[in-house]
C-alpha cells in the first residue's frame, strides 16, 4: 500500500475465539497467548509495584555501574515475539530462579464438554496495514496449574506415558522446569506456566544451549540463562490463523485451487457449533501448525545460504590477491539482468504465503531440500505481494555463475576511514611539475603488514592540502585526486572561507578548548588574547580570535562541512559497509549519514563507529556549549563511540545522562550500552601504541646516528631531560620550565650535571595561543639561562606539528628522562615511542608524565606528577635522576610488552570486534548456530536472512508496531458515529523532558504552563461534537490539571492517575464536579506516616518537593541532580515499605517521582468507566471508535483496559465491576458518573456496531502494549488537529508544546 492511500480496515477490531482439545492433569487449565495480546489485570514488567524492585530501579538510574544486573528491567524482543511481554530477574546476580512474564487469555471447560477448552473472553486484535487480503495471527497454547511450582510438574502427570479413560496420552510439551514463567489470571495475580506445546521437540535446542552456560562468566550467569531460556521459548512452534481484512472473518485455512496443499493433512477439521476451529493439543498435524512448518523450511534454506556466504567470504579473506575490483551487491543479489525494475533495498515482508506450494505439513524433508513452487521458483514469503521475500532469495534471473562472479569480485567488506585531514603528505615538485603524495606518520594511515588491510577493503575520505602550493585549480584537484585514488583515498575540496571558519574557528577556537575542559569564561584568556602578540600578528590573525559574535558563523560552517562529508558518503556507502568517523571535527556526521539511510531505505544500512582522539570534557563544561546537545546526538547515531581513556568515556556517559537524560548499563562481555530509543549505543575504550616496523626502519636510518652523535657531543657531560610539546597553553611547557628552574635552585648539584632539551612545535592552527605561549616560554628560558648559565637548556622552536622522525628517535636514544607535563591532553604517542626506542638491549630511561594525560593511564612504569604541584614535580625529577638501573629496567618491563604489541592494526581490530559484539548483543536473531564473526556476516545475515522462529516473530512484531497512519485513522474517525478519545496530559499533550537531565527547560507538571493554543482549539472543536467524547487523564494533581486543561469545558478530566475525575461542564457551570474512586485506603492515616519521612528527604535534596493528590503521595526529584535524586529515591522507597506494611498500597516510580498509591489504582479504572458510560448513554449505536494516547508506563493500563472493555461487550453482564465511586463528601454515587445522563446500563439497547476501530498509541517508539506509536507531542498535536478538521500538519515545536 502506498503511503498516500487510505486503508479502510486499518485499526478495525477483530474478536478472536479459540478452542482446543487437551486432556490435562487435575487442577490444570489451558490458556492462549500471542505476540499481539492484551490481558486483563496485566502488570507491566518495567513498572515494578513492590518496594524492593522500585528501589533497585531507582538505584540503577543513579549508579548504573554499581547496581543490579543490567537485565533487571530489560525488554526481550525475542521473548515478546513468543508472547512473553517482558522479562526481569530479581535478586542477586547469582540467583537461580529466572522470572519471565507472558500475557495470556483464560480458556475454560466443563464436564459436559471436556476435554474441549474454549476462550472465556475473546482475544482482541486491531488490524494493521497489510499487503494482501489476509492478516496472519500467530498464537500458542500453554498449561497452567495455579498454586503449583514449575519444579512440581514432574509429579502431576506431565510428560508421562499414562493412558486416560479414553486410552489417550496425557498432555505432553515443553516443560519450563528451568525457568519461572508466569502468566496473568483474571484476578490481577499471576500463575506459573507449567507446559507449552512442542510437537516438533524444539526444546532440545534449548537443552543443548545449557551446556554452554558453564563457560560463561559467573557474574553474567543470570542474564545469560535468561537469554537462553527466552530464545528457547521464542523458538517454540506457533500456530497461525488468517483474518480476512475485508470481512474481518477468521479463515480456518486458505483455499488454493492450484495447489495440493493439505492433501495429506487433517481434512476432518472440526468446529464448534458457533464456527470456531478446534485445535488439538500438541498435534503436529493440525493445519494451524502448517505455516510454522513452511517457515521452518525457509529458515533451513536461509541457514544454508548463510553458511554458503560465510564460507565464500572466509575463503576470500584468506586469499591474498591484488585485485581491488568491487561490485554493487544490488546488481549481484537483487537486480535482474533484464530490465525488470526492483526497488532497492527490498521491503522486508514477513508474511508467509501458502499459495503455489507443493508440500504438506506431515511431509518430512531433508534440511537441504529446497521448497519450490509451480514453476520451480523458490517459495515467495508474501501474500499476494510483489515485494521481495524476507529471505532475500537471489533473483532467478541471476545465474549461479554470475552470482559467484559477484562474490569473487567483492571479496572483503568495505570500511571507510573518515577524517577531516587525510593522513597523507602532499608536496609539489617544481622540478618535475607534479604533485607527490606519501602516507603521513598517523594512527590512521595505511601501515605495512596491517591485518585490517588484509581482511577489509579500506578506503580513506578527508580533506587535503599541499604544504608548498595551494590546490586551487581544477587541474590541480584532478591531479591530486588521481594520485590519491591509487592510495584508496578520496579527497574532499572545501571552500576556503567555509574551511577556515570550520577548522580555525569552530574546531580550534571553540570545541578544542571546551573538549580540553577550558571554561568558556576563561576562553578569552586561554592564550587567545593579544597581550604578548605584536600588533601585526594580531591584525593578521584576528579572524581566529575568540569572539562570541562569530559563533553563529562558525557553527554554520561546521554544519556545512559535516553535511559535505555526509553527501560524499551517501554517494559511495553501500549496505553492509562500515563508516569509521574520526575526531571532533565531524561529530555530526554519524547522524547525517543515519538520517539519510532512514529516509532513503527506511532503516540504517551501514555500521558506524565514532572515535574521539582528544579528551571529552566534564558535563559541567560541555553544557556551556550551546551546540552541545546536537554534538551529543550526532555522536550517538553511531553504533560504537570510542575513546582512548575511560576517564573521557566516563565524562561522555555523564554528559549523555545529565544533558539528554539517557541512562547506560553494563552488558555481557564488559560492554557499556547507552539506551537511546530502541537502540543501544556501545561506548568503548581501547589503547593504542606505536608501529614497531616504522620505528625500526627509522632507527636504522644513517641520519639517526649523526643526530645522536651531535647531541651527545653537545651535552657530553650532562644527564639529558627531553621534551617535545606543542607550543600551546594546555601543553604545560611553562609549568615544566618552572619545575626545572626550581630543581636547579633546590638541588645546586644538578646545575652542572643536567640539561633540558626542549622542542616547541608551532603548528599554526591556534595562532594567538601559540604566540602567547611562546612569549611566556621564551621569558622563562631566558630567566633560567641568566640564573644558571646557557648550558642548562637547549631550546628550539620548530614550525609544524611534528619533529622529523629521525631527529625524534635520536633524541629518545640519548635522553635519560622524557618529561611531558600537559594540563589537558588526549592521545600522545611520543612517550610510547620513547619506551620502544629504549627497549632492550638499550639502557632503560625514565618517563615523567602528567596525571592529566591519557598516557599516564597507559604506561604503568612512568612517574606521574601533577604539573601544578611544582614542589612535588621537582621531587619526582630528583627521583628520576637518581633512580637505580634495576628500578629503571623494572619499570620499562611493565610497558615494553604493550608498546611493542598494541599496534594501530590491532587497535582497529579491537574496535571492530566491539562493533561486532554490539551487533551480537543487540541482535534479535538466534546466534546459536552461527560461526560467523565478521561484521559483514552480522549485517548481511542477521538483518536480511531470517534463520529462526524467534527472528521471524520478532521481525513480524517490529513490522506490525509501526507509526500511526494519521490519514487512515482520520478516515475511520469520520466514518464512525460514537467516538471516544482518551489522552494523557504530561508527555502526550504537553512535551516532557527526561527526568535524567540535569537541567530541564520546562517546569514540573503543568503548573507553570498551559496547553498550546492550537491544541486547545482542536480539543474544543472535538469536544463540542455530540458524537465525540474527549477525556484527559493525568497523574498530576487536580489543581494543576484544571489549570492546564480545565478551561476546555467540553473535555472531561481525571487527575491522580484516574483516582478522581470530573465530567465536562454543563452549560452555566463554572467549576468541575469532582468524583472519586473508593479504593479502600485510609489516606489520612497514610499521610501521618509518610509526610514526616518525605520532609526529611526533601530537606536534604535540593529541588525536590512533596506532591499531594487525592489518592497518592509523591516525592518529586525531577528537578534534582539526577544521580543524587535517584539515589535518595532508592533509599526512600525501602524506608516507606517498612512503615506502610499494614496498608494496601504500592510504590510507583515514574518521570522522576516516587509515588505511594493504592494497590488497586491505575489509569485503566477511569478508562473503563468512561467507555462503559459512553456505551451506556447512547441508544443509537455502540462505541465504534476509540483513540487512546499516552507516553509512559502508567498509560499502559489505559491501553490494556481499552481492549478489556471491548472483550466484555460480548457478555456485559459478566463484566467485572469497578470500585465504588463517591462524591466530595464520601457519599456513594450510583448511575452515570462520568456524564450527566439518566440512561442506565440496563436500559441500553443490544444494537451492536457493524465495525469498531480502536487505536492505542504510545508517544515515542518503545516497548509497549499499544497498537502503534507517534514520535513526540508534536505528532499528537497533529493528530488532534487533523481529527478536528484543521487539515494541516502541526507547525508547533516541542518547545512550544512544553510552554518554553
From TrEMBL:
Pfam families: Glyco_transf_20, Trehalose_PPase. GO terms for cellular component: cytosol. CDD domains: GT20_TPS. NCBIfam families: T6PP. Residues 41-60 have a biased composition (Polar residues). GO terms for biological process: trehalose biosynthetic process. This is Bifunctional trehalose-6-phosphate synthase. Residues 41-62, 150-183 are annotated as: Disordered. GO terms for molecular function: trehalose-phosphatase activity. In the N-terminal section; belongs to the glycosyltransferase 20 family. SUPFAM superfamilies: HAD-like, UDP-Glycosyltransferase/glycogen phosphorylase. Transmembrane segments: none annotated.
Amino acid at each position: 500500500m502506498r503511503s498516500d492511500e487510505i486503508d479502510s480496515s486499518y485499526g478495525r477490531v477483530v474478536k478472536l475465539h479459540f478452542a482446543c482439545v487437551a486432556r490435562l492433569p487435575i487442577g490444570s487449565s489451558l490458556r492462549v497467548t500471542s505476540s499481539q495480546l492484551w490481558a486483563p489485570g496485566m502488570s507491566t514488567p518495567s513498572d515494578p509495584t513492590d518496594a524492593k524492585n522500585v528501589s533497585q530501579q531507582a538505584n540503577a538510574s543513579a549508579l548504573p555501574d554499581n547496581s543490579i544486573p543490567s537485565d533487571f528491567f530489560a525488554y526481550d524482543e525475542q521473548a515478546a515475539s513468543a508472547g512473553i511481554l517482558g522479562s526481569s530477574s530479581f535478586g542477586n546476580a547469582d540467583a537461580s530462579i529466572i522470572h519471565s512474564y507472558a500475557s495470556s487469555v483464560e480458556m475454560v471447560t466443563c464436564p459436559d464438554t471436556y476435554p474441549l477448552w474454549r476462550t472465556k473472553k475473546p482475544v482482541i486484535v486491531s488490524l494493521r496495514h497489510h499487503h494482501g487480503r489476509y492478516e496472519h495471527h500467530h498464537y500458542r497454547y500453554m498449561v497452567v496449574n495455579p498454586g503449583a511450582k514449575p519444579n512440581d510438574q514432574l509429579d502431576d502427570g506431565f510428560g508421562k506415558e499414562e493412558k486416560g479413560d479414553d486410552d489417550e496420552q496425557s498432555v505432553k510439551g515443553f516443560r519450563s522446569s528451568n525457568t519461572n514463567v508466569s502468566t496473568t489470571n483474571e484476578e490481577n495475580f499471576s500463575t506459573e506456566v507449567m507446559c507449552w506445546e512442542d510437537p516438533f521437540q524444539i526444546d532440545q535446542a534449548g537443552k543443548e544451549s545449557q551446556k554452554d552456560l558453564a563457560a560463561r562468566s559467573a557474574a553474567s550467569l543470570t542474564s545469560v540463562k535468561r537469554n537462553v531460556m527466552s530464545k528457547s521459548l521464542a523458538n517454540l512452534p506457533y500456530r497461525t490463523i488468517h483474518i480476512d481484512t475485508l470481512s474481518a472473518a477468521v479463515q480456518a485455512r486458505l483455499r488454493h485451487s492450484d495447489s495440493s496443499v493439505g492433501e495429506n493433512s487433517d481434512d476432518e477439521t472440526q468446529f464448534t457449533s458457533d464456527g470456531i476451529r478446534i485445535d488439538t493439543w500438541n498435534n503436529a498435524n493440525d493445519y494451524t501448525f502448517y505455516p510454522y512448518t513452511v517457515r521452518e523450511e525457509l529458515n533451513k534454506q536461509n541457514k544454508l545460504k548463510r553458511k554458503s556466504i560465510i564460507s565464500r567470504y572466509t575463503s576470500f579473506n584468506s586469499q591474498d590477491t591484488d585485485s581491488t575490483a568491487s561490485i554493487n551487491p544490488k546488481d549481484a543479489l537483487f537486480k535482474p539482468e533484464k530490465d525488470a525494475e526492483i526497488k532497492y533495498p527490498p521491503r522486508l515482508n514477513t508474511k508467509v504465503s501458502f499459495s503455489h506450494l507443493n508440500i504438506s505439513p506431515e511431509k518430512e524433508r531433508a534440511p537441504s531440500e529446497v521448497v519450490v513452487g509451480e514453476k520451480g521458483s523458490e517459495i515467495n514469503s508474501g501474500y499476494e505481494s510483489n515485494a521481495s521475500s524476507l529471505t532475500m532469495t537471489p533473483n532467478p534471473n541471476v545465474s549461479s555463475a554470475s552470482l559467484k562472479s559477484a562474490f569473487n569480485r567483492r571479496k572483503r567488506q568495505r570500511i571507510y576511514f573518515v577524517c577531516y585531514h587525510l593522513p597523507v603528505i602532499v608536496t609539489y615538485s617544481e622540478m618535475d611539475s607534479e604533485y607527490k603524495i606519501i602516507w603521513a606518520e598517523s594512527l590512521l594511515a595505511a601501515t605495512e603488514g596491517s591485518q585490517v588491510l588484509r581482511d577489509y577493503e579500506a578506503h580513506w575520505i578527508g580533506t587535503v592540502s599541499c604544504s608548498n602550493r595551494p590546490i586551487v585549480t581544477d587541474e590541480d584537484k584532478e591531479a591530486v585526486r588521481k594520485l590519491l585514488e591509487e592510495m584508496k583515498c578520496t579527497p574532499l575540496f572545501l571552500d576556503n572561507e567555509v574551511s577556515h571558519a570550520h577548522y580555525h574557528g569552530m574546531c580550534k577556537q571553540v570545541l578544542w578548548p571546551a573538549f580540553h575542559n577550558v571554561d568558556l569564561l576563561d576562553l578569552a584568556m586561554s592564550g587567545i588574547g593579544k597581550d604578548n602578540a605584536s600588533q601585526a600578528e594580531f591584525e593578521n590573525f584576528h579572524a581566529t580570535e575568540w569572539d562570541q559574535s562569530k559563533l553563529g558563523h562558525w557553527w554554520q560552517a561546521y554544519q556545512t562541512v559535516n553535511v559535505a562529508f555526509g553527501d560524499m558518503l551517501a554517494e559511495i556507502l553501500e549496505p553492509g559497509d562500515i563508516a569509521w568517523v574520526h575526531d571532533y571535527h565531524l561529530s555530526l556526521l554519524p547522524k547525517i549519514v543515519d538520517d539519510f539511510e532512514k529516509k532513503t531505505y527506511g532503516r540504517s544500512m551501514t555500521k558506524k563507529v565514532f572515535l574521539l582522539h582528544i579528551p571529552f570534557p566534564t558535563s559541567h563544561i560541555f553544557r556551556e556549549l550551546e551546540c552541545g546537545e546536537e554534538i551529543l546526538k550526532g555522536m550517538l547515531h553511531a553504533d560504537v563511540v570510542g575513546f582512548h581513556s575511560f576517564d573521557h568515556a566516563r565524562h561522555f556517559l555523564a554528559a549523555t545522562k545529565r544533558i539528554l537524560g539517557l541512562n547506560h548499563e553494563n552488558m555481557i562481555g564488559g560492554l557499556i550500552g547507552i539506551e537511546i530509543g530502541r537502540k543501544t549505543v556501545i561506548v568503548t575504550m581501547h589503547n593504542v601504541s606505536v608501529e614497531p616496523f616504522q620505528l625500526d626502519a627509522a632507527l636504522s636510518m644513517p641520519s639517526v646516528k649523526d643526530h645522536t652523535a651531535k647531541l651527545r657531543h653537545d651535552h657530553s657531560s650532562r644527564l639529558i631531560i627531553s621534551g617535545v610539546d606543542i607550543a600551546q597553553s594546555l601543553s604545560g611547557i611553562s609549568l615544566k620550565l618552572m619545575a626545572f628552574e626550581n630543581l636547579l635552585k633546590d638541588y645546586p648539584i644538578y646545575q652542572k650535571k643536567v640539561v633540558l632539551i626542549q622542542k616547541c612545535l608551532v603548528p599554526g592552527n591556534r595562532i594567538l595561543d601559540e604566540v602567547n605561549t611562546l612569549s611566556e616560554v621564551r621569558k622563562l628560558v631566558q630567566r633560567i639561562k641568566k640564573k644558571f648559565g646557557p648550558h642548562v637548556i637547549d631550546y628550539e622552536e620548530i614550525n609544524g606539528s611534528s619533529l622529523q622522525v629521525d631527529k625524534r628517535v635520536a633524541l629518545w636514544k640519548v635522553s635519560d628522562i622524557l618529561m611531558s607535563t600537559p594540563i589537558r591532553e588526549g592521545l600522545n604517542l611520543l612517550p610510547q615511542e620513547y619506551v620502544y626506542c629504549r627497549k632492550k638491549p638499550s639502557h632503560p630511561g625514565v618517563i615523567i608524565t602528567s596525571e592529566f594525560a591519557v598516557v599516564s593511564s597507559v604506561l604503568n612504569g612512568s612517574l606521574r606528577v601533577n604539573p601544578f604541584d611544582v614542589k612535588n614535580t621537582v621531587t619526582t625529577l630528583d627521583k628520576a635522576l637518581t633512580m637505580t638501573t634495576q628500578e629503571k629496567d623494572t619499570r620499562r618491563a611493565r610497558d615494553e610488552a604493550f608498546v611493542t604489541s598494541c599496534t594501530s592494526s590491532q587497535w582497529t581490530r579491537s574496535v571492530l570486534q566491539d562493533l561486532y559484539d554490539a551487533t551480537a548483543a543487540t541482535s534479535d536473531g538466534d546466534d546459536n548456530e552461527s560461526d560467523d564473526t565478521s561484521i559483514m556476516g552480522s549485517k548481511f545475515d542477521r538483518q536480511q536472512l531470517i534463520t529462526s522462529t524467534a527472528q521471524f516473530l520478532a521481525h513480524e512484531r517490529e513490522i506490525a508496531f509501526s507509526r500511526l497512519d494519521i490519514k487512515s485513522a482520520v478516515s475511520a474517525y469520520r466514518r464512525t458515529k460514537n467516538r471516544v478519545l482518551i489522552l494523557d496530559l504530561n508527555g502526550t499533550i504537553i512535551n516532557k523532558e527526561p527526568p535524567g537531565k540535569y537541567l530541564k527547560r520546562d517546569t514540573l507538571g503543568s503548573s507553570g504552563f498551559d496547553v498550546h493554543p492550537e491544541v486547545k482549539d482542536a480539543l474544543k472543536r472535538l469536544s463540542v461534537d455530540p458524537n465525540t467524547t474527549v477525556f484527559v487523564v493525568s497523574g498530576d494533581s487536580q489543581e494543576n490539571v484544571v489549570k492546564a486543561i480545565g478551561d476546555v469545558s467540553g473535555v472531561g478530566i481525571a487527575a491522580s492517575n484516574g483516582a478522581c475525575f470530573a465530567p465536562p461542564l454543563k452549560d452555566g457551570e463554572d467549576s468541575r464536579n469532582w468524583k472519586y474512586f473508593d479504593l479502600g485506603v485510609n489516606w489520612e492515616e497514610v499521610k501521618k506516616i509518610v509526610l514526616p519521612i518525605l520532609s526529611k528527604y526533601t530537606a536534604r535534596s535540593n529541588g525536590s518537593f512533596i506532591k499531594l493528590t487525592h489518592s497518592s503521595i509523591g516525592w518529586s526529584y525531577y528537578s534534582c541532580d539526577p544521580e543524587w535524586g535517584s539515589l535518595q529515591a532508592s533509599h526512600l522507597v525501602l524506608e516507606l515499605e517498612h512503615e506502610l506494611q499494614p496498608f494496601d498500597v504500592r510504590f510507583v516510580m515514574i518521570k522522576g517521582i516516587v509515588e505511594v498509591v493504592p494497590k488497586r489504582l491505575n489509569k485503566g479504572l477511569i478508562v473503563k468507566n468512561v467507555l462503559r458510560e459512553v456505551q451506556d448513554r447512547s441508544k443509537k449505536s455502540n462505541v465504534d471508535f476509540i483513540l487512546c494516547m499516552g507516553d509512559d508506563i502508567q498509560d499502559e493500563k489505559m491501553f490494556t483496559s481499552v481492549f478489556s472493555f471491548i472483550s466484555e461487550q460480548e457478555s456485559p453482564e459478566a463484566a467485572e465491576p469497578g470500585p465504588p465511586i463517591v462524591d466530595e463528601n464520601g457519599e456513594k454515587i450510583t448511575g452515570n458518573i462520568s456524564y450527566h445522563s439518566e440512561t442506565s446500563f440496563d436500559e441500553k439497547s443490544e444494537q451492536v456496531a457493524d465495525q469498531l476501530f480502536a487505536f492505542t498509541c504510545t508517544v515515542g517508539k518503545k516497548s509497549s502494549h499499544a497498537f502503534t506509536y507517534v514520535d513526540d507531542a508534536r505528532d499528537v498535536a497533529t493528530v488532534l488537529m487533523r481529527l478536528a478538521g484543521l487539515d494541516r500538519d502541526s507547525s508547533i515545536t516541542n518547545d512550544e508544546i512544553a510552554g518554553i
